[in-house]
Amino acid sequence: MKEDKIFKTTLIMSGVFIALLIILILYSLFKGSYLSIKQNGFNFLTGKEWDPVSEKFGLLPFLVGTLLTSVLSLLISIPFALSIAIFSAIYLKKSFTGKILNYLTDLLSGIPSVIYGFWGLYFFVPIIRKLEISLGILPYGVGIITASLILSIMIIPYTSSIAREVINLVPSELIEAGYAMGATTYDVIKKIILPYAKSGIFAGILLSFGRAFGETMAVTMVIGNSNTLPKNIFSPANTMASIIANEFTEATKNSHLSSLIEVGLWLFLITFVINFIGQTIIKKFAPEGGK
């Protein structure tokens, strides 16, 4: 009885602390961006021009750049991440090779983002530049597609590790029943394992999307740092996180600094909404036993 009371008290205190922390972050961001909100209003969201000299600030180029890099990286990474998860959790579940594969995959998440950025500059940029020349496009090398490729590698461990764990949680009775009815391994994976684990797999995909959405250093190094609206996936661009990293220390005008803080405010709010929607979907499609 005493242990339950301590547990409930700790749980309540933790919830209050987290809620207070979120409120303080929102308050700080709103306070810092108040000048920009007052001057720019709703035009900040729809504006296409970012010119600190003439004090014109528009978020749209960075919002588009963030969404393009995040969505593209997610689309590229999902097939590889799910393949790794299924292969290691089913075909190599108890083997030494499977353990090595899991370790190497998880190791990717521990590599500093600046290392990914350097690697992208020396490995992906020359490849993309040759591709652009062959397609008759200006050979920048850096741009949306380069940043997306780097991000896709960075977020693979997040999707694959969570997918692997939820696949391992599928009741063995269901799997054995499938085999007993004459189903092949492919049928068991398609009709039993993946439907049962879909909410957990979606949680991993959501975590990967959030990781890609807020990534800063690696993207800053390979995206081209252009403040204009990208025309295609080969165009240099900027993301909401990279524009803050590039200009925050150089912002001398109050309006410029406040606009950068407002970019951070919108980045925080969009991430919060994405996570809320994702959690709602996860609860909706969760197995009956997990509700």
List keywords for this structure.
MetI-like fold, single chain, 11 helices, 291 residues, mainly alpha
Structure notes:
The chain has eleven helices and no strands. It has one domain: MetI-like (MetI-like fold, Orthogonal Bundle). By secondary structure, the chain is mostly helical. It has helices at 2-40, 43-46, 60-91, 96-108, 113-135, 144-168, 172-180, 185-214, 217-222, 240-247, 254-285. 76% of the residues lie in helices and 0% in strands.
Low-confidence stretches: none
Radius of gyration: 22 Å
Through-space gap between termini: 25 Å
Structural class: mainly alpha
CATH architecture call: Orthogonal Bundle
Main sheet properties: none
CATH class: Mainly Alpha
CATH homologous superfamily assignment: MetI-like
Helices and strands in order:
Layout lengths: L1 H39 L2 H4 L13 H32 L4 H13 L4 H23 L8 H25 L3 H9 L4 H30 L2 H6 L17 H8 L6 H32 L6
Helix pairs in contact: 1-11, 3-4, 3-6, 3-8, 4-6, 5-6, 6-8, 7-8, 8-11, 10-11
Gist of the model:
This protein is mainly alpha-helical and 291 residues long. The protein has helices spanning 2-40, 43-46, 60-91, 96-108, 113-135, 144-168, 172-180, 185-214, 217-222, 240-247, 254-285.
